[in-house]
Design goal:
Layout (H helix, E strand, L loop, with lengths): L6 E3 H8 L3 H9 L5 E5 L2 E5 L2 H10 L3 E5 L10 H17 L3 E7 L5 E7 L3 H4 L11 H6 L5 E3 L20 E10 L4 E9 L8 H51 L1 H16 L5 H27 L10 E3 L1 H13 L9 E5 L6 E3 L1 H17 L5 E7 L5 E8 L6 H4 L22 H11 L3 E6 L7 E8 L3
Keywords: Kinase, Phosphoprotein, Transferase, Two-component regulatory system
EC number: 2.7.13.3
Catalytic activity: ATP + protein L-histidine = ADP + protein N-phospho-L-histidine
Amino acid sequence: MSTGNTNLTVAEISKEFGIPESVIANAIQSHELEVVESTSEGAKISDNAKLKEWVANHHPARIYAALSGTAEVPNDERMQLLANLPFLARQLVNADYAALTLSNQDGRIVDMIVSGMSESQSKPIGHPPTGRGVLGNLDHSEAPIRLGNISSHQRSTGFPEGHPDMESMIGVGVTSDKNQDKTIRIYVTRSSGQPSFTAEEQVLIESLATFAKQALEFDTLRKAETNLRIRAEDAEKAKSEFMSMINHDLKNPLAAMQVALDMAKFTDHYPVEDLFVDLQSSLTVQRTLIDSLLDMARIGKTEQDYEFENEYPIDLMNEVVNRQRKSSLANNRTIKSNIDENLPAVRCDPIQMGRVFDNLISNALKYSESDVTVSVTKATNRSFISFVIADGGQGIPNSEIDRIFEPFERITDSNKPIEGLGLGLAICKTIVEAHDGTITYQRTEGRNGKSVFEVKLPITE
């Protein structure tokens, strides 16, 4: 799946992942997926983590098969490790076939790796087991299973047309992979007329499963250690960048004040009024920077940190828009307001959400020459109110979009100097998420393209 701030149509998702359009439509209807845009091509869904998770749980099961050796699987370290197990198990007990299954939390097999069968042989079989038969029995139990005749088991539902003839079987649980929300099982089978598996052979498969479990746990620990090391390195880098920025941005006003004092000391014609103006300007800049740091440190992260009220969007946004229209940034500029007067209330802290919208509108005024448009409507899924602030500025470079809500991130590609410490949008994101809402940015293309920030807040129940 592609990454970034892209939207996919229902047809595109269906084609890329083999999920029927009717299934996707049902997910939209039940609010499992959220439509972010309606176009002539149909509804569009944001290509984000939520969509990836949904696809992982609903795409048709993938079957990777190899007649001999190891099946070709996606270039993922964990899958590469697992792909070796069926072939090893088959060799270990001289089985005709072996398979490893990965099931999701609902017990549905999402991946199956087969040894002893080619890709062309596996295709006529269709989908892998659905969990209702013998394999389903193993999926709901940690105990191994050994059968002399699969068909004799009380839960046996038979084999689909085109399935190879199989009689005896050993099935063993490898591990419940909590980090991946997947349950892993391994099976070996023999065809009719072959000797049944023995207890000793079952022990061999159990030993292989134990080895695989330890290898997976080691892989998990290794990845955790790598992630911690990367986070530590990133933290050290962020600390260094932060100290450099503080050193630069907080010292600049001090330097300006020193220059003003020196000029007053050594220049006979430096008016006292100018001295006070210069000092006041520098102090204001420094106070603003320090206030931003303090805000980031003390801003509430959870509901308990806010004073929630049922607030109507028309009241909330009119107050913000009127306040921004009176600011110096709005001189010779127009803030257009398009707010549905009949929208239901949202549950929010009006002071803190006012800060969010003040920040977004003032940024639009500060970093673009165009008019600013504020629109408030019901979101597509009808359970959220959508607050949109748009301007016709040059927008944020694609390479920086993913980082704009991170603390201390400032746009590097801009025609205007970027003020402050880069905390405004990070503070906005913290406030919005504490309200169970979302804040996103996208740039619409074309001659009249716009920079668009959208905040969604849940409607009061």
